[in-house]
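Supplementary Text 2. Reproducibility record for the structural model of the 396-residue chain.

All settings were left at their defaults, and a single model was retained for analysis rather than an ensemble. We include the record here because the model underlies the residue-level annotations in Supplementary Table 4.
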Amino acid sequence: KAVRDAYARARATKGKPFGIVARTFKGKGVSFLENKDGWHGKALKKGDELNKALAEIGDTSVTLKVEPRRYPASRVPAAGEPSVSPAYTLGQEVATREAYGTALAALAKTAPQVVALDGDVKNSTFSEKFKEVARERFAEAYIAEQNMVGAALGMSTEGKVPFASTFACFLTRAYDFIRMAVYSRPSHLVLCGSHAGVSIGEDGPSQMALEDLAMMRALIGATVLYPSDAVSSERLVETAARTPGIVYIRTSRPKAKVIYDNAETFPVGGSKTLRSSPKDRVTIVAAGVTVAEALKAQEALARDGIAARVIDLYSVKPVDEATLRKAAEETRGIVTVEDHSAGGGIGDAVATAVGGRTRVEILGVRDVPRSGKPEELMKAYGISADSIVAAAKRLS
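Retained model, structure tokens:
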């Protein structure tokens, strides 16, 4: 009765928030359970113990009739229908986070079911571009990342395709909500973490998000995508909007040169082999900001007479196992390089995929980093072209 009365007052309250504070006792109504220690997670034993509890509780019949709500499925564009139209030139320098915002704005125009949320950093994640096009479908979550994920999950149940954006480091505080969202099995829920890795530079280690790939890869059924240039960033936003379940997109702060043609496609579970020859002695696997470093390393190795294959592993989960295993069989070893902790990210994903078929050397951040210029930090923490060259020579 008290609960029903409280709900009745809540429904009658207009124009202002209404909160219910309930003081509860575990085992209320059962003498040997009520407010007693030692009963957490324990079921009553059938027989005398259960019968006594039921007798003390009294009538347990439930008279409330609840009609289960049926949630509509999200309507997403057909697989072949274009939703974004990248318009870049090769060599143009654009940050993947900015291209992410450009793609969101395009989806705002072409896909009315897409909504956007942001953790009060929309000018940095560039989700503000979506707001400029469709203000009524943009929700400012402020610095309440847990609430942002919960709200996005709710929007998903209403048939929307939510894109929730913030700095990747701030998603760590929402991880409990993210993992619970997995168990709610949303039709679509896209998370974007920007400003990841030491390449953010002077902001320092508290902002660098060196753990996000590991925590997102650990989610059952989640998809993890990591663009390296503006074209792949826009196309992966399009891919994410069409992919069921939870999708994580990792974007970067620095500007990156465009390396892909605007018409290139990026399906989930794929990769791009950027350099290859019949004489390859070593394979370099990179994603995001380290793709440019891998290409520099390939050129340096070529000058020393060492042919190297370069793979852009833009789909971090699931990975392109066929391409990775082929590389393991055709070259003497694999070097992985990532702007992330050396544990739990791309290196571990590749090592698992090749399953001992070849040697794998994992380059990642292994020490707590400091503030500095991006190029200085990438060199200092062993993920620059120089470190890739040294690792490749050890394997070749």
